[in-house]
Amino acid sequence: MKSSMKVALVMESSNRMASAPAFEFYNGKRSRWINAALRFMEELRFPTEHIYFLSFHELRIISYDESVSFYPRSPVPDKKLQKLFAERILAFLTEKYPGAEVQLHVGKSITDCLVPLLEENRIQHYIFAEGKQLLKKAVLYEELIRQERSLQRMRDLKREKEKMIAITEYFTPYEADQLVTQFDTLAHKHGLVKHFSEIKHLLREYNQKLRAAQASKEEYEQSLDEKERIELQKFFGKMKGLADLFSDEHVKNRFSNTRTMGRLTTFLIKDGYVKQTANKLSEAMFRLQIALLKRMNPLPHQT
Asked: Of 98, 197, 224, 300, whose CB count within 10 A is highest?
């Protein structure tokens, strides 16, 4: 089972300066592949508190931002020193990172003695650029960086699609407005220009019809006298459309030939257009949601 905890071990480079945090101290013109390895981990958003540099000088395990002062470049260590350092690294990992996956950005002077110890202790590990020459290590890391950026773009696109799908929960005009406000600028990137254009058109139409219906309702309500208001109040609270207007015999007979009935009918017609446009908007949002799902995961053919 793969561990969720990870720790990265990075080989010291030949770059030197007076004094600096480790990630700057080992970063320079003389350490191209180490630079590339650090950039790769940055692309991965690898937590810097779990990145350590390995130095054969005094067999040090140096944290990412620990201050490092100038020290001479070490000669190629002999096997005895490599084995001693490997044992120290194993003790460090066992104490501080039990059960963690160990990512190795190092050369053979580390792996030859450390990997057998990791395998013996059943510690998960992965060697980046294993067996590559120094010049080719940098090339490989640059390719890994390009791949990670490509994957990150895909993950970002997927998250954006998921957010758009999540907004359309009830397919209401309010949700349509939120959808356009937050994601209209991303329509082209996701190939959804046609869908967003339709939703924006219907949203404008809905708002226009809603304003017209509200104005008609205000005109109708202002025309009522107190007696009419009392008679219609109970009925109006239950009324949902034109059909209800003609299903109540008392209201139909009492107001059939009055200006009140005419204004109420006008309002209900305009309110019906509002509901009709809201339904069209809901259908357009549903089509958008299906299009998003298809772009995330191809759906089976629907007959």
From this structure: 224
